[in-house]
Amino acid sequence: MDPPRNSFNPNKHLKEEFVSNLTGSSILEIVSLSTIVPALIVLRHYVCAKGLYGPLHAKKITSKKEKDGTIDGRSWRIYMSTLVMDFLFIVLPTLLFLTVLAEWTNICAICLILLLLFCIGDKRSGSYSERGSDLAYSVRANVSAYRVSMMIVTCLCILAVDFTIYPRRYAKTETYGTGLMDLGVGSFVLANSLVSRQARNVSSMKWKTVLQSTSPMIILGVGRLIFTSGVDYQVHVGEYGVHWNFFFTLAGVSLLTSLINIHSRYCGILGLSILIGYQLWLSSGINEFLLSNERANNLFSQNKEGVVSIFGYWGMYLVGVQLGNFLFFGNNRRTRMRVWILAVIFWLSTIILDRHVERVSRRMCNLTYVAFVLAQNFQVLAILVLSDFIPGQKTSVIEEAFDRNLLGSFLLANIMTGLINMSVDTISTSSITALAILVGYAFILSILGGFAAFSGIKLKFW
After folding, report:
1. Which domain holds residue 348?
2. Backbone dihedral angles phi then psi of residue 65, each to the nearest 5 degrees
3. What's the domain count of the chain?
4. Is residue 448 part of a domain?
5. How far is CA 386 from CA 116, 211, 275, in A?
6. What is the model's pTM?
7. Where is this gene product found (predicted)?
8. I need a labelling partner for 128 at 20 to 30 A (CA). Which of 50, 53, 209, 309 fits?
């Protein structure tokens, strides 16, 4: 018998099994989890409006440097103290609800909604006139807060899932089901589509520009593949396939959208047609092929989940383009009402499709999964637009920090997650140690993001 070869990751197979064969949680629990983070963000705005913990002075502080090129010490101290308060008010509670307070999710979501309603009814806080006078700014701020909330949860989950303190029902499902982490890739695709060039009716890009914007995703995908192979890092093959990963999916969607470039008013029709046709194809028997463990010795079969599911993500992206154009880049006066109506419609569609067509499956990105992603994301947006009814600051320092470097924050989170996994036996770690590591990880991620924003550093490839 050959001796086992040295590995940077001796517990690779145990870690892969730890995130395999999972079935997810209930839709009700996903609704509760999707309530908590945006509610915390809106409540933070309210606390700032009441003058607690000091004003944000975001527009003054984030100028970063004085004319002589040096950082003003007082502004830096105010900025960092406010950032820490934002961390304690938004990020830390989110982490706790994803771990040690997971069993209290439903009750806490109800309490937060009741508290939000109280804040909305608190007429003593001030006037809404300053905010109401610029609906376009309000909409942009709400969309930014939505993208930031998605990024915060994603960054917390990608490391927390490797510890036993993280409920298994929140991790990605094997075949069918509604796990919290199943929403990750779909939310990224949808978030990008809502604010895309197509949604803003920007003229079509030339191929040179398309390649410049897509090549970073391809490079990151290849880089991740080389890294995971080189250090024997754990990879759940059933998620995308043997070689495929999240970055290749984003690149594929971008290339397809650029190849078939149509006006935003027709994107919804095309996207829905693609999704319906794709679902019919799945129901004809392709779903059994995608969910089977058998793989032939060719690239397509080895990466069947990632390659085929692009049709679902592309259809979702196109639908998101028209929704973004309709909601955020047209008449903003009815945006709040429209977001709430769409959230309800998408949740009802998810329940109906899940029961009568096919259960939610991230692995295939079927029609029900697309409805599930739309429902959850629009629910988050619907709660965030409630901040328009609460006077005071429209954003927080930590939101601005993450919003300036969404991709940079995600890449840093992935690097830190990889380093921690290579250094710590996450499966055997006690709950107290795991929580300490996660809090430290989240705090460092927030501080570095704040430092980059304060210093004017922005990671952008195009």
Report:
1. 172-395
2. -125, 150
3. 1
4. no
5. 8, 39, 31
6. 0.91
7. Membrane
8. 53
